[in-house]
Amino acid sequence: MVVFPQGFFWGTATSAYQIEGAWNEEGKGPSIWDVFSHTPGKILDGSTGDTACDHYHRYQEDIALMARLGLNAYRFSVSWPRVLPEGQGTVNSLGLDFYDRLVDALCECGIEPFVTLYHWDLPQALQDGGGWEARNTALAFADYVSVVASRLGDRVHHWITLNEPLAVVVAGYVLGIHPPAKQQPHAAVQVSHHLNVAHSLAVQVLRGLCPASKVGITHVSLPVYPASESSEDQAAAQRFDCLVNRWFWEPSLTGQYPVEGWELLAEFVPQTDAGDEELLRVPIDFFGHNSYTRAVVRNDPSVPLVGASQVPQVGRPHTGMGWEVYPDHLYDSLLRITKDYRPPAIFVTENGAAYPDEVQAGRVADVQRVHYLREHLVRAGRAIAAGVPLQGYFCWSLLDNFEWTYGYTQRFGIVYVDFDTQQRIVKDSGYFYSRIASHNELEENGGNETALPE
Ligand code: FCB
């Protein structure tokens, strides 16, 4: 039996653009994702987040679902352009009212809100002014955070400044698959610095306005394993780990970029301001850890900068996203972060899996997701037993939703959404997760799987 500590937070995670819909209602301004998804050819199934899960209008039903599942925490994000349609300047009070109602409704059900302040939906107006390449965006972020914190800070005790800076930088500025869809390494390094500035400024704002609350940042973790014992592959794995993990984690955890990162990125030194070094040293209260899979890496001089590439794990199980199912990665990375950086607390702010679910006779028997969750939760429990200060786990996601460039083709929810009718159906994994959350423990070798709804 894996027993979790008293007071452990059991939640699900979502993000504004992926579930809210109401993309142009009640004064909301456009985000880069509105503009991008409306551009033909960008989203796999030609869809947009215009309606998504219609959560903007159905939040009460969705919160009632969480309560019914016995969950005591919920991670959601605030849409910056809903609150500030131009990104800065005039506040849209109707937008802010929505989050006020949402937080109230959560609190009434005893569900602790974990608020992410930036989950990729930058106001288009700020993008037009240079986006994250412009330092002004970081300053505007701090002002936006102050608007949100002034309104919600009396009830929100956990703030997450940014979600996955790696994805913003790599998908947006290296691979060019997310907006603003650039492939410019120099801009990428500049953006990563401005995200760190934005994070640090936001931490300062939150400390001032909500001194009793806990403030953290969410990073993705992609544990890297060398493809062989050879010294070339081991060095390649270290370089890959440096650029994919350490480059992003270490400014938040140690206040500094890794020296080895500067060696690899020597051509692309970003512009900084006097005082940035000190600014980046603001400490966080918790590390938000998103993780889904691992990377197996070999030496590959044909790949610029990193000189390494991933080796597909043929024959191993994969999710619908093509991500290898390798549960030990969660234990390994939680241990490593604890040992190397000693953060005061860690939350798994996302973990989960997409599978092609089907409704049969009103039921979604998502056996593979149940297996995925069980295996990962067992590793989370073992990590706690080994001394990791893990205080909560958020399953991605509450609902099937708009999975960025994959549109609605990937279902990550523990609750199924019929996008034609907006009907919600709790999947077997939802009942399974509910059972664990309610009992605060799980059987290592199965048992909970077969549990029917209580
Ligand atoms: C994470 C994102 C989240 C979702 C999951 C599948 O990288 O933070 O919005 O797309 O992946």
Describe the structure.
The chain is of the alpha/beta class and 454 residues long. The chain has a single domain, classed as TIM Barrel, CATH 3.20.20. 40% of the residues lie in helices and 15% in strands. It is built from 15 helices and 15 strands. Helix 7 runs parallel beside helix 9 (185-209), helix 8 runs antiparallel to helix 9 (185-209) and helix 14 packs parallel to helix 15 (428-439). It is globular and about 55 Å long. Residues 450-454 have low confidence and may be disordered. Bound molecules: beta-D-fucopyranose (FCB). Beta-D-fucopyranose is lined by residues 15, 18, 163-164, 167, 220, 290, 350, 396, 403-404, 412.
What's this entry about, in short?
This protein has 454 residues and is an alpha/beta fold.
Note the main attributes of this structure.
TIM Barrel; 15 helices; alpha/beta; 8-stranded parallel beta barrel; binds beta-D-fucopyranose; disordered C terminus; single chain; 15 strands; 3-stranded mixed β-sheet; 454 residues
What oligomeric state is this? single chain
Structural class: alpha/beta
CATH architecture title: Alpha-Beta Barrel
Compute the number of strand runs.
15
CATH topology: TIM Barrel
Nearest-integer average pLDDT? 97
Radius of gyration: 21 Å
Q: How many strands, which pairing sense, and closed or not: the largest β-sheet?
A: 8 strands, parallel, barrel
Which CATH class is shown? Alpha Beta
Number of DSSP helical runs: 15
Helicity range: 25-40%
As laid out across the biggest beta sheet, the strand order is 2-3-4-5-6-8-11-12
Order of helices and strands: EEHHHEHHEHHEHHEEHHHEEEHEHEEEHE
Low-confidence stretches: 450-454
**Span between N and C termini?**
20 Å
CATH superfamily: Glycosidases
Strand content: 15-25%
**Gross geometry:** globular
Number of domains: 1
Bound chemical compounds: beta-D-fucopyranose
